[in-house]
């Protein structure tokens, strides 16, 4: 699924959801830090574009019973 988020008259972020992950593939912000962030897929993870004041966050329907996993 491809979602284009317009953040003003001439501002955009191209947001893609695929195979259980979400990421920003293109944006016209000056620093493009949102494009450089890794794909997100877990509850609580986020991608932020400060110039466009955009926050994309994963919110699960149910809370996970696990707080952390160690090996």
General description of the model:
The chain is mainly beta. The chain is 6% helix and 38% strand. The protein contains one helix and five strands; from the N terminus they run E-E-E-H-E-E. It has one helix spanning 33-36; strands spanning 2-6, 12-18, 21-27, 46-49, 54-57. Strand 2 (12-18) and strand 3 form a beta hairpin. The longest helix has 4 residues, at 33-36. The radius of gyration is 14 Å and the shape is elongated.
Task: Detail the topology: elements first, then pairings.
Layout: E1 2-6, E2 12-18, E3 21-27, H1 33-36, E4 46-49, E5 54-57
Antiparallel strand pairs: 1-2, 2-3, 4-5
Give the terminus-to-terminus CA distance: 35 Å
Task: Report the portion of residues in β strands.
Answer: 35-45%
Helix/strand structural class: mainly beta
Oligomeric state of shown chains: single chain
Q: Tally of extended strands?
A: 5
How many whole angstroms does the radius of gyration measure?
Answer: 14 Å
Order of helices and strands: EEEHEE
How helix-rich are the residues, as a percent range?
Answer: under 10%
**Widest β-sheet, arrangement of strands:** 1-2-3
- Sheet having the most strands: 3 strands, antiparallel
Count of individual helical segments: 1
* Poorly predicted sequence stretches spanning 5 or more consecutive residues: none
């Amino acid at each position: 699924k491809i979602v284009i988020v317009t953040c003003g008259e001439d501002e955009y972020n191209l947001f893609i959801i695929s195979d259980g992950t979400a990421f920003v593939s293109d944006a016209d912000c000056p620093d493009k830090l949102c494009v450089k962030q890794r794909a997100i897929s877990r509850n609580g993870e986020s991608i932020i574009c400060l110039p466009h004041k955009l926050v994309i966050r994963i919110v699960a329907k149910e809370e996970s019973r696990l707080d952390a996993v160690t090996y």
